[in-house]
Every structure is written in C-alpha cells, then in structure tokens.
Amino acid sequence: MNTKSNQHRSSVPLVLVAAGRGHRAGHGVPKQYRLLMGTEVLVHTLKALLADPRIGPVQCVIHPDDLALYQACIDQLDHADQTRMMPAIAGGQTRQGSVKAGLEALQSALQSALQADNRINTSVLIHDAARPFVSGDLLDRALAMADQTIAAVPALAVTDTLKWVDAEGRVDGTADRTTLRAVQTPQVFEFAALLAAHRKAVQTGQNDLTDDAAVMELAGHKVSFFAGDRDNIKLTLEDDFRMSERRMQADMIPVTGLGYDVHAFTKGDHVWLGGVRIAHDRGVRAHSDGDVILHALTDALLGALADGDIGQHFPPSDEQWRGASSDRFVQFAVGRIRERGGRLVHVDITLVCETPRLGPHRNAILTVLSRLCGLPTTKIGLKATTSEKMGFTGRGEGLAAQAIATVLLPD
Prior knowledge:
Blueprint: E1 12-18, E2 35-36, E3 39-40, H1 41-50, E4 55-62, H2 67-74, H3 79-82, E5 89-90, H4 95-116, E6 123-128, H5 136-145, E7 151-157, E8 163-165, E9 171-174, E10 181-183, E11 187-190, H6 191-203, H7 212-218, E12 224-227, H8 238-250, E13 252-266, E14 270-273, E15 276-279, E16 283-284, H9 292-304, H10 310-313, H11 327-339, E17 343-352, H12 362-373, E18 380-385, H13 391-394, E19 398-410
Parallel strand pairs: 1-4, 1-6, 4-5, 7-12, 17-18
Antiparallel strand pairs: 2-3, 6-11, 7-10, 7-11, 8-9, 13-16, 13-19, 14-15, 17-19
C-alpha cells in the first residue's frame, strides 16, 4: 500500500545530513561550514528550514570532529529555533549510514512527542545541509506530499542531452532523457517505513545508496515525485559557491552608515584605538574604554541598518558598560547585520587627532578590525589626519573618528 490517509499534522520532524567532508568544494573546513555571504552554509540552511513553523524537531547528523563548528552555527539561531533542534549526533561512514543514525536517534524522541502532542506528523523529511536555498514553496509541496504517499522526492526534468561514456572516456550511447529526472532534497517519507527500509538495507549488505528514495526502492516501495526547484542547488564544487554568492548579491541592495565619535583627553597613560592599547601621556574621559575608532565604527554599522546608535544599545547610565571593551559593541553590530541576512562588505575609518600617531600601530589595528568585521584588510580603509592646529583636536584637547560602513541587505 503506497498511499496514506489524510492525516496532516502541524509539525514534521526532519533529519539534516551534515556529516560529509565536501572535498570537491575545495580545501578548508567542510562545505557546510564554509561562509556564504559571510555566514556559514549550515546557518543559511537551518534558517530557511526553520522559517516554516511546521518543521521540527530537527535532528542534525554531523561528523564528530565538527562539534565546535556545529555549535557555533547553532548559537546564531534565535532561541525559539534552537529549541526545535535535537542534540546533534555523529554520522556514519556513508550518507546512508548518517541518515539511518539520524532516524534511530529521532525514533525515541518522536515516540515521546507523539504521546505529548498528537499533532506531530508521522512522516519525516530528509534534507542535505549543503542545500541552503530550499524555498517555502518547495517545503509546501513536500509537506503536501506527506499526506498523500509514503515516499516522495522533488525532481527536475533533465534538459541537457545525456551520454553513456565507456571506461576510455568515449561516448557509448545516448540516454532517453524523457524518462530521467534529477532528484533533490527535501525528500519526504513515512517515518516507520523509511526506518524499516534502512534497517533492511543494512541487513542485506547495501550500505552506500546515494539517497533515501533508493533505500525505499530497495525495500519494494514505489516512490512518487513532485516538482523540484532549480534554485535549490546542492553546493558541491568551488564554482557553486562563487555562483551562489553572485546570485545572492544580485538580490541585495547596498546601504551605507556613517559614524562619528569624540572623546576628551584626561589624566592617564594610554588610549585605546581600534582595539589596540597605545601608550600615551594622557587617557580619555569615557564610560567604556573610550575607543573612538570602534565607537564610530559601531555607529556606522548600526546606521546602515537604521538601528539606533551606540548610546541606545549601550547606555552610559548602565553600570555594566563601565570600562567595557569596545570590541563587544562592534561584535554586537556585526551580529545585527547577520541577523538581518546582510553582509558587511567595506568600512572606511578616519582618525582625527594631533597625537598619538596612527602609523606605528596601523597594522595591529587593521588586524583587530579584520577579525571583528570578518573582512580582509583589503576591505578596510584606515587613515589619520590632523585638524591643522584648529579646534579641540588641533589644540590637543581630545581626539575624534569618523567611519563609513557599506552593507548589502536583502531587498
């Protein structure tokens, strides 16, 4: 029997496969943790999935070596979304083994959830972490199929001519593309049937099937398909990342923010500039550490978002910010940009003072700014000027800074 009675529920569990090493995508961290527009691929994927309130609980399957990378991604989710995440588990040697591990881990949680809330769907979605462009429409189609069949996959018609190739690399025939489909995820299955099929596959020595539809086919089930989405690409090669970033940038608009800060000199033996402690014959009067570069930068970042200013988010009347390191303010503002789905692409900063001189400390400051902003130093303008002995800076009464930030935001 390959159809289900209409039993639509409001919550559908999902196994997210994130245990692969992604060697074809290039060197460095596995592709699900690589940055795409300044944010990890896994974060993009989770936010796209969790934007649908019907999705959950989510069982991530990861490589045991990636726990710290994984946790850093989870920390970027809203608290409500974090509560929909099950504790991550280690995957297997193959994708098939990883999905089975995820299903086994979900089984007990799903049984408990069903006892507490009969709205939990008895289906399960399987999705690849390296597909961050899963759309709401595609999820709608997948969840609709959950009420109609025990196995369904999103698929696309093949538009290119396909050739059979022999071991020597010569064409050995032409495939009939009218009978072929390119299959994607998320795939949707009846939970118990899929878990039973995975267990049977292992018992029969089949351990390296490339998707869960193949596992269900091996168990004798018919698999239906529904319309896929050509934008729902799987990031596999280095070029996939480059093309995806170009596409994402085309859907964003550039905005700028301007920041300005000033502090008067007072007694002391150092000043903070751009996160670097610089010996000086005076200090500055400030509630926090008085870093004019980082304060101006924070206001520029917040200005690009039209999100108030540093005093609004970190009021000087609040004692918790007394003597606070200003890198916390920049990190907060950069985080707000990421929460909005934006990307910081350039900053330009000018320090205005007679002393201290910026030159000897410029490289150290650039290193700090690069870390805080997540930008290469080639995307950070940093310069200094005097006011030709005019005004309060010219008289040596204080120092000031201006900053401009350029941010890409979703249109």
